[in-house]
Amino acid sequence: MDYKDEQINEIEALDSIYCGDMEIIAKQPFYKFSIPIKSEEYELDTKNGLACRLEFTYTAKYPEEPLIIDVEDQENFEDGDKDKIKEHLAEQMNENLGMVMVFTLVSAAQEWLNVQWDKIKMDREHKAALKLKEEEEAERKRFEGTRVTVETFLTWKEKFDEEMGITKRREIAEREGKKLTGRELFMTDKTLDQSDLKFLDDGDAVKVDESLFQNLEDLDLDDDDDPDFDPNNLSDDSA
User: Fold this and answer.
1) Omega of the bond prior to 29 within 30 degrees of 0, cis?
2) What is the pTM of this model?
């Protein structure tokens, strides 16, 4: 086989096919030339699509031995894409040894870019969907408020009691044996804590609106005993 003639004939055919795009870089000692390729959705100066330039260099016994291929001017390639496309082209060369193959290699590289771009788009869409879901979940949680568990309720209750002065009054009353008012009995009834905990244990997590407890000091819950009250002299107003 006259390798030189085979190479020159292929160069002429490629120049006809890729007229205006193919560039001859060198002719000695062997032909070196480049052909640009891009994916179908490629747009210049954007992040849409993939593009690169393939540089081919003939070897002494091409096409019975592989030629040299370099990938230059990659656009929107991800890490490792350059090595992957070169490995793909190396496999194609081994399958086509014995016949001129540059057109076949360019077509294979073009198809590889299209497939790889589809994968990149799917990955971007998946990440965008996850981000949207996370944002919606965060907004839902913000709207619903914090769910209450036994542990969080106890922490909140202790803090609430401290802020309202309930803990302090309870301690003083227990120490002095003081009779508590109706409101104080309600506020210091420890069994209420247990009933609250039982409710939390038996059911799903619930939410507490703290604003309902802010004005307890303003309620008139039988602060003072009625001196005129006589349990033996009850009357029915409706009678």
Assistant:
1) yes
2) 0.56
